[in-house]
Amino acid sequence: MVNTFKVIGAALLLAISGIQPAAASGSMRCGTHIISSGQGNSPGQYEVLKRCGEPTFRQGDTWIYEKSSSVSRRIRFDNNGDILEIN
């Protein structure tokens, strides 16, 4: 019974402290900003540049941001510069 309370307490502590799991596919964090792909409300290329800075690589309409050697996010834009997907 004591172990159950410890697990519940630890889960509540994590939830209260604001620790969040890794960003889900379709979104990424740039400093204090969350960039997400959505229908009609996602930022365009200019806003992504403003919030996230220059990407590590550009391949046509695909921008790649490398956070570390093992973490990278790929943003694909449509012909209008709107986000199609983030993964």
What is the molecular shape? globular
Content-based structural category: alpha+beta
N- to C-terminal distance: 41 Å
Mean of pLDDT: 77
Order of helices and strands: HEEHEEEE
Low-confidence stretches: 12-24
Determine the number of helices (DSSP H or I, runs of at least 4 residues): 2
Percent range of helical residues: 25-40%
Strand content: 25-35%
Describe the largest sheet. 4 strands, antiparallel
The neighbouring-strand order within the major sheet is 3-4-5-6
Q: What is the number of independent domains?
A: 1
Number of strands: 6
How big is the Rg? 17 Å
Could you characterize what this model shows?
The protein has 87 residues and is α+β, with helices and mostly antiparallel strands. It has one domain (23-86). 28% of the residues lie in helices and 30% in strands. It has 2 helices and 6 strands. The strands form 2 sheets. It has a 4-stranded antiparallel beta sheet with strand order 3-4-5-6, with no helix packed on it. A hairpin with a 5-residue loop joins strand 4 and strand 5. The longest helix has 16 residues, at 2-17. It is globular. It starts with a helix and ends with a strand. Residues 12-24 have low confidence and may be disordered.
Q: Notable features of this structure?
A:
87 residues; alpha+beta; 4-stranded antiparallel beta sheet; two-stranded antiparallel ribbon; 6 strands; globular
